[in-house]
Design goal:
Length: 362
């Protein structure tokens, strides 16, 4: 029988101890992973304590600055442009002459119409003289009627041509500025449909917003509105809904909207065409219990904390802002509701269950 010497004996003991330690460590490691599997991450669970708040519900629409008075100037007849006394940026006054047609042609046309009138008048008189002593037959009646109509038409032609001469010069109907560059030049022929210039009164400006058809039913006249402009990002202009146009428009994106006008009273220089946003207050609820929008589940439920559990409660909503919503039923002041980490409620490791540190849904 062979006996281990002292050195070999201690070497064997050391090996056995090392093996036992390794096995124990491995078992502990396995137990750690198994015990913490599917662990609930408390850092992902966010809550909100309910307290009374004031909620403001708004409708937001984009738009531009425009003049409250603006008009396109047209001649009432076609002709050759003689002169134009306007360029973009010019200040003009009510009654100021802006442009005129060449009246030489118009005056000759008026003279021709006057000659036609004189000729028609003579024919009318001759007709009456010729048939004045004859029996009034149907044929004579028709002749007299034609002569009368020819005379009336010649009078109308003279009046129209006279108006053309009188209206050959266009004037500005308002005080303001020329805001568009004229696209016509002296010597060119213009039509009555051609825009000679656009005049706008820039002293009083408005904000014109395009309110989507899904929101137009929420807005009404005199609703408080806050307007921000890209040119003045740090300023807010207070206004109210002044006009909601009754006819829909199609926006540049193809959507249906309604032009809505807001008056702006400010000392700042607001230029026509400045872009901005109108935030219209369509509802207000003061001193009400509310929760963040992200707390709402399936549009009608909240998870409300009860000790170490979250109870799923059915609620009713009221006024809604961009971030919060009023809860009119199912919630009281001081309640704690879940706002994030809903999936974490389904989790819980063995260790968390044993120690009672897991939050459960009810």
């Amino acid at each position: 029988m062979n006996f281990l010497n002292t050195k070999d004996y201690f070497t064997l003991i050391k090996k056995l101890l090392n093996k036992k330690i390794l096995i124990t460590a491995a078992l502990l490691l396995i137990l750690y992973f198994v015990g913490n599997r599917n662990a609930q991450d408390a850092s992902k669970i966010k809550t909100y304590k309910v307290s009374p708040n004031t909620l403001i519900s708004t409708v937001t629409s984009s738009g531009k600055i425009q003049a409250d008075q603006s008009t396109d100037l047209h001649f009432q007849t076609s002709g050759q442009l003689a002169w134009i006394n306007a360029k973009q940026g010019d200040q003009v006054y009510k009654g100021q002459a802006i442009a005129s047609l060449n009246t030489q042609v118009l005056e000759k046309q008026l003279k021709s119409d006057l000659n036609t009138y004189a000729k028609t008048r003579t024919t009318f008189d001759d007709t009456n003289y010729t048939y004045k002593d004859q029996p009034l037959t149907d044929a004579i009646k028709r002749i007299a009627q034609r002569s009368q109509l020819d005379l009336e038409n010649s009078v109308v032609d003279v009046e129209i041509r006279d108006l053309a001469v009188r209206f050959s010069t266009i004037t500005s109907p308002i005080d303001g500025y020329i805001i568009s560059a004229p696209a016509v030049y002296p010597g060119s022929n213009v039509l009555a449909t051609d825009t000679i210039a656009t005049v706008a009164n820039t002293k009083n400006v408005q904000f014109l917003a395009e309110v989507d058809e899904t929101d137009v039913g929420k807005i009404a006249l005199d609703q408080v509105t806050k307007i921000t402009l890209d040119a003045y990002p740090n300023d807010t202009f207070n206004s109210k809904v002044a006009l909601i146009t009754p006819k829909a428009i199609t926006t540049s994106t193809g959507a249906t909207a309604f032009n809505t006008i807001f008056n702006i009273d400010t000392q700042k220089q607001l230029l026509i065409g400045m872009n901005g946003t109108a935030q219209i207050e369509v509802g207000r609820a003061e001193n009400v219990n509310s929760v963040p929008l992200e707390a709402i589940v399936d549009d009608k439920y909240l998870y409300v904390k009860s000790r170490k559990k979250f109870e799923k409660k059915e609620i009713e909503k009221g006024t809604e802002s961009d971030t919060d919503v009023e809860i009119t039923r199912g919630l009281t002041t001081g309640d704690i509701v879940l706002t994030a980490g809903f999936d974490e409620l389904k989790k819980g490791s063995i260790f968390q269950k044993i120690t009672g540190s897991v939050l459960w849904p009810q």
